[in-house]
Amino acid sequence: MSTTAPATAVSWFDRAAAVTPGGVHSPVRAFAAVGTPPIAIADAHGAHLRDTAGRTFVDYIGAWGPALLGHGHPAIEAAVVDAATRGLLFGLAGADEVTLAERIVARVPGCQMVRFTVTGTEATMSAVRVARAATGRQTILKFAGGYHGHADMFLVAAGSGAATFGIPDSPGVSSATAADTAIAQFNDLDSVDRALAAARGRVAAIVVEPVVGNMGCVVPEPGFLEGLRERCSRLDIVLIFDEVMTGFRVARGGAAERYGVTPDLVTLGKVIGGGMPLAAFGGQWSLMQRVAPAGPVPRGDVCGTSAVHRGGARRARRHRRKARSLREPRRGGARLQAGLEAGARAAGVDVSHSGSGRCGRCIASRPVRGWADASAVDRDAYALLPRHAVLRSCSHPRPSSRPSSPPRTTMA
Questions:
Q1: Secondary structure of residue 58 in the 3-state scheme
Q2: Of 10, 243, 21, 199, whose CA–CA distance to 110 is shortest?
Q3: Which of 242, 259, 373, 382 is catalytic?
Q4: Digit-coded pLDDT (tens) for 321-372
Q5: What is the C-alpha separation between 279 and 292, in angstroms, rounded?
Q6: Torsion angle of C-alpha atoms 127, 129, 135, 138, degrees rounded to 10
Q7: Mean predicted confidence (pLDDT) in 160-189
Q8: Which of 51, 188, 264, 270 does the annotation list as catalytic?
């Protein structure tokens, strides 16, 4: 089997690399870990993608979450088109943003008020700013391997210790910014205690993905989230759940509902927009009242409440409320997990599945409970499945029918 990508795909990538750093607009699209050139999608419908080379794929990524209902869902398309005919962007308030905010507040535990943004990075960055304003402290505590967007404060490496401070993870991040970030290990409350002790009362917030997507959908062990909640309450620290990936996927009310632990602030994204760029941060009334114009914490943008974004989000949420919309991705994920594990056993390969709800991944031969386990994964072996999926993809026209209900094979 040849490992050379079709000429059309190479031509596209060569053109892209000449005008874009690395040829892509986000590192996750570069396929660097897979060992093949990136693919460029021409169109998508239901559970299928077609690239510029004419190859058709079953989509198990789901746009990293937003495509929970499948691509090109007729109801969402109609809502977006309808919103676009009434105006793309106003730079002013809209009545339907109230309806969407009310639905989020009613659904997410502990979320008494909400503010919309465009991206998850903006939402999490804003939540940290609120926490710092509320506590008068500067340091945030995050977990090794956890990704919270590309704001400077989050791009800090863990180092070799459980409570390492101040090592920038990328060029361009100042040492002063990195010094305000402490690192602990996920599923390890002892490391949290060491980090808090080293910070000596300077921690404003603990930021955590309740299910850590960036290192393989690692679930919290019993007592871990509860332990974070207890420490934050006792030490007057703001607990922030970064649910940009998990929100409305691990449960109807997110990880706070799934695990019974209520944060002080929560960030949401991806699924919330139904495929449109929309995110949010919200939480306790007393904290959110600090956000301008109600309070002194600055936060504003022109595009955060685009009418088109809200139109897609509103219709997507309406369809996700249907029982079948919520059950099918979970069932599809369970079938996929069982098939992968059976195939691996038949081939004499050990795999371990991790995840919660509609988030899951097979990544290792042993359970992954934190960054130390995830970083020890055989990356070459991990790349085999997606690489062969790309190279063995079929070359035929995309399915002609467009489903009116969520396809059974779409999952993220």
A1: strand
A2: 243
A3: 242
A4: 554 455 555 666 677 777 777 777 787 776 665 555 555 555 555 666 665 6
A5: 18
A6: 120
A7: 72
A8: 270
Strands (E), 162-253: 181-184, 203-208, 238-243
- Is residue 373 flagged as an active site residue? no
Report DSSP letters for 290-332, one per residue: TBTTTSSB----SSTT-HHHHHHHHHHHHHHTSHHHHHHHHHH
Assign 263 a pLDDT band (cuts: 50, 70, 90). very high
Please say whether the beta carbons of 275 and 66 come within 8 A.
Answer: yes
* Catalytic-labelled residue, pool 51, 59, 147, 264: 147
Distance CA 357, CA 46 (A): 21
Strand partners, 283: 113, 265
Residue 247 identity (one-letter amino acid): G
- Of 354, 316, 319, 339, give the one whose Cα is nearest residue 385: 339
Report for 13-22, 85-94, 223-232, 390-399: range of highest mean pLDDT:
223-232
Of residues 112 and 368, more confidence is placed in: 112
Q: Tokens 């393989």 appear where?
A: 216
CA dihedral defined by 52, 57, 58, 64, rounded to 10 degrees? -50
**Which pair of structure tokens corresponds to residue 181?**
């970030």
CA distance 71 to 73: 6
- Averaged over 43-49, what is the pLDDT? 90
Q: pTM for this one?
A: 0.80
Q: Is 193 a catalytic residue?
A: no
Amino acid sitting at position 164: T
**Cβ pair 12, 52 in contact under 8 A:** yes
> Alpha-carbon distance 88 to 90, whole Å?
7
Whether 369 and 222 have beta carbons less than 8 Å apart is answered as no
Distance CA(271)–CA(177), nearest Å, equals 30
DSSP, res 156? B
Cα 217 to the chain's mean position, in Å?
Answer: 10
Residue 259 catalytic?
A: no
Report phi then psi at 320, rounded to 5: -70, -20
Spatial neighbors of 309 by CB under 8 A, at least 6 apart, are: 118, 273, 276, 277, 278, 303
End-to-end CA separation in angstroms for the chain: 28
Starting at the edge strand found earlier in the chain, the sheet holding 113-117 runs: 113-117, 279-283, 265-268, 238-243, 203-208, 139-143, 181-184
Count of other CB atoms within 10 angstroms of residue 322: 13
Q: SS3 for 165? A: strand
